[in-house]
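Researcher: Let's try something more involved. This one mixes different molecule types, so please make sure each is placed in the same coordinate frame as the others.
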Amino acid sequence: MKVGIIGSTGMVGKTLIKLLEERDFPIEELRPFASKKSEGQLLKFKGKDCKIQSLSHESIKNLNFVFVATGEEISREWTPILKNQGTYVIDNSSAFRMDPETPLVCPEVNSHLITKDKFVYANPNCSTIQLVVLLNALNKLKALTSVTVSSYQAVSGAGKEALKELSEQSLDPKSVAPKSFPTQIAYNCIPQIGGFDDLNFTSEEQKIRLETKKILNRNDLKVSAQAVRVPVLNGHAESVWVNFKESVSLQDIEASLNAQEGLHYLKEGYHTQIEISGKDEVYVSRVRKDPDFENRWLFWLVADNIRKGAATNSIQIAEKLL
Amino acid sequence: MKVGIIGSTGMVGKTLIKLLEERDFPIEELRPFASKKSEGQLLKFKGKDCKIQSLSHESIKNLNFVFVATGEEISREWTPILKNQGTYVIDNSSAFRMDPETPLVCPEVNSHLITKDKFVYANPNCSTIQLVVLLNALNKLKALTSVTVSSYQAVSGAGKEALKELSEQSLDPKSVAPKSFPTQIAYNCIPQIGGFDDLNFTSEEQKIRLETKKILNRNDLKVSAQAVRVPVLNGHAESVWVNFKESVSLQDIEASLNAQEGLHYLKEGYHTQIEISGKDEVYVSRVRKDPDFENRWLFWLVADNIRKGAATNSIQIAEKLL
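Model: All components are placed in one shared frame. Result:
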């Protein structure tokens, strides 16, 4: 297979390349793309040097798969062109996620949408992916009716510069002015990821809400999120409340969690972001019945936002296509 | 007034002394108490040296007020003795919070419980105090029915050693083994504050739940909390969802928030922990209607857990008693 990576020098792009090697994706040619300023630089893949190219109608020819790991603008420009030339595109940006024609895929949940004749696949938002893996398990129980999430999101989701900002600012907060974030992120939590809409919700909160409904194919499901950036390098955590229409037992919930592909359930104790950073699965713990609320349960959910929340999920889509 | 501080060398004790000076509490004698190892050390108050004493039946005599800023064991031992000798006790520990005979007071909410003939007052848990200031405002609107909270709690709540652990661990995570916390706190979130009960809730989560009902005198109110320690030095934040029985308008909510003593409401933008550290009020922002849920609203709530969450609230109780 001939595989292109758009955004190959970013956090997700680099992880995609590492994972393609790790998972032994059948690659004959890896073609990394990046902006003009990285053009001509070399990048190692399976011991060989690959030259970074910039995007052009010439440079994208003859590719079987392209992973898009940039912002939505570049995706909006190049995804339709790639599709027209018969290249499968797995797009990590938000450009086509809510497009009714584009499958929004988390393979553990809706891999049935992956078919040879569909060329463009949207990869969900990082904080949505880990949530839907949990909800898919719970959705098999008696009528899941609503979901409430408060997130604890790592700075790796904001890119390489953001990681550097947190690391340097943590050593001496006053010496590093905020650039990647609206205010100081070291030793601070920021309740803003993305811009605000008219309802005073952020784009991240609306992504969690709308993408979750689309992936689960449950427009009737009520979803509410508060998204918060925390001074953690990598790994997103979420406090999750789930309502069912009828009473469910801990045994039934545990059986569903244990049966869910890609989900690790811990009965006692809990996972933290540092422990799961670098792993490909979703981790759930602190499962408990809410004593004051009828048929409501609490969960603590953690996953690596760059791997399962982005790169791993993209490659899983490509693997299903193969 | 002759005023004693039990636990005068801890985070809350030191802040109490600073605040008594700042707020010009009418003090004739300040008597700081601490463990044997600090006995005889000097502590500055209004420019004068005060000698730290250890607790004894002798050393606690002739005090009008005592602030307890230690754990519950010391409070259980000394609070009844102080009460019997006619000293007013304001107890920051959890020892008597749920005792039906002891008023649990957040002055902005239930100062009517402060009366000359009651000698012992419990100061609520830090994460509860900021929550009830918000809920008191909302409780004046049409039937508040339930509250859901996910907390982002600073390490200062775990004491001086914990602050040192976060600071040192942030510089070099591998070099500082976890002592104040179950696992690494630098660049990590820990969903455990206190021990676990049979329901898999932590003591912090149950404090938020049970103390909130007691302070608001609303046993029927449904409260659910997930308490999480975050790598922040000082200041607690909370994602809060509130349900009303009937429809309420943003205007009504805003009017209630603006009318609430001790609460600052920000219409646009938000407060973060670093900004409000060192302040005495509770800060609320990101007020918005939950689009998928009937009569449910979201809030972002921040306060200084050592000041309003502990020391300031204690002194406010004493000031009302005067």
